[in-house]
Every structure is written in C-alpha cells, then in structure tokens.
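Researcher: Good morning. I'm working through a list of sequences from a screen, and I'd like to move beyond sequence-only analysis. For each chain I'm collecting a predicted structure so we can compare shapes side by side. This is the next one on the list. No need for commentary yet; just the structure.
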Amino acid sequence: MTVTAPPEETAHDRAEAGVFSIELGDETFQFQRVQVSDRKVVGLQIVELAGKHPIEAFALLRHLKSGELETLRPSEVVDLAEPGVERFFVIRSDRSFRFTVEGLAMEWPQAKLSAGHVKFLARAGDDKDLVLDSDAGHQVLEDEAMVDLSAPGVERFLLRHAPRTVTVYYKEAPFQLERRKYTTEELLGIFPVPTGYRLDVIEHDGEFRELKPGESVKAREGLEFSSHPPTGHSS
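Model: Good morning. Structure tokens for this chain:
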C-alpha cells in the first residue's frame, strides 16, 4: 500500500511567501494543500478550512515530523511557523484510540487502521515491516492488514527491516522473488504457466482469483499462485 502526500514545504519557504501552506487529510489518507495567511490559527479554523460541518463532529489531529499524532482542541492555538507544523487530519469521530509505534505516542479517531497507514503515520518506508507486539509474541503485518485499535489496553507496534526477498509458491513449487510489486505479465514470465493459461492468486480465505492483464500484486512471504485454462477451473 502506497500513500502519496503533496510535496512538503519548509517553514522558511512559507514565511518567505507570506503564507503558510498546510496539508489536510482524512481517514482515506487523501490530502489537499491549503494556504493560510495567518501565522497563528485555532483548531476550529483548521476544521473550517477542511470544509467539515458540523465542526463539533470532527476530530483534529496534528501529524508531527517525529511521526507522533496529537489531538487538538477547537480552541487550541497552532503556530504554523513552528518547524514541523504542516500536516493535519480532520476526521469524523467522537473518541480516539491510543497506540504506540517504536515508543512514539499515537492516537487515531477510528477503531480500525491499516498497517500501511500506521507505517505512513510513523514515517516508515517500504523497507520496513510493521510488527504487532503482543503478549502472544510478534506478528508481522502486511500493509493491507487491518488492525483493531479498540481492544483493551494500548496496542504496541514495532518497525523491523523488511527482507529483500520473499518465497512465493506456484503450484506448491517455491520461487524466490524480490520484495516488490509484479504485474500479471511479469509473473507469467517467471512461473512455468502453460501457454494461454490464466494466472490465479490464492487469497487468504483459499479462494482462487484470476489476475487481470496489467494488474499489480505485491510479492509477500508465502503468497500462493495457480493457473487454469482460458475456460474451466484452476489446475
């Protein structure tokens, strides 16, 4: 999962221009950049800039350069000239859920969040894996995995260097692949798929899903593939 935000500007750039440019995001991690002429604003004004109404139904969070998230009150003053004050999230919610990533304090206004978005908030790149640290042990999470922040206690996450390669399987035969996204056509060239056959990826629930031409799939550890004739069942 890749999340792309607008190019960042420095506080100096904004001050030189006589305006302060900030990023406003929502629960889908889509961002818009808006310009503010006032150096100091209150939380209420930032929610208004996002065009959200009624204002009291939305939570406002500041995303710091360190990766930490802070909830801001409607009356709380924000100095946009301070280093690292550039990105905010405005999300409909009436409560927040706390978690940590490598000890960084985080809070999010919705109960569920994808592992990829947790990594984005922690400013971790694709070279890092998100690991759930629980009493049962450590569990590596794929970017698409949803984590439930509403469980009792504070969820703890760690970041670990991701391996450069993973082992995937085509008809139970192992293949070592670089950890990246592959198109259907690339995979057809890697696996010994009979000419004219269709390639399938086997989902977590065991269902076979045919890969469309040009579709991209991220290679992850243990991912399984199969194939089938143009018509008929997988073989």
